[in-house]
Amino acid sequence: MRNAPDIRPAPKPDERLRADWLRVLALAESDELDRAMRALADSAELPAYRWVRSPEIGMTMVQGRAGGTGARFNLGEMTVTRCALSLPEGVVGIAYVQGRSARHAEQAALVDALMQSPAWHARVRESVVAPLAASRAARRARHAADVSRTRVDFFTLSRGDE
Predict the structure, then answer these.
(1) pTM metric for this prediction
(2) Hey, where are the domains in the chain?
(3) Per-residue model confidence as pLDDT tens digits over 44-89
(4) How many CA atoms lie within 13 Å of 118's alpha carbon, on the beta-carbon side?
């Protein structure tokens, strides 16, 4: 069925928040996530975890839309690494990251699990997720500034019908 409407129920607010921090973790620079996790580990002993699914490298199909709004088409494949882990309290953390970094996926899954734990949520949000989100926003702002310097505005003094 092509162009079928999305009839899934709207996500709950906590699902939307989780999707937001998973996005931040997936798009974070690996070295920034590593530094944040080392700082967190230095400030408190991180809980042990067990693998539900150890890091695996695979491929996924990336889809695009013509003009950002047109019909979907398969753009190509990209490499992803995924994993899932469980904390002793039963909370499961997951991660899908672009590329082949098992370490990045492991750290992102651990942060996801800790963010779902009431005992860790505030600390991890302030020391890991918020700084990574701010760093990404700064990178995007720098990129936008770089792109805007080369922007060309086409201006026509008169039109053929006037």
Answers:
(1) 0.81
(2) 13-56+83-145
(3) 999 999 999 999 999 999 999 988 888 999 999 999 999 999 999 9
(4) 0
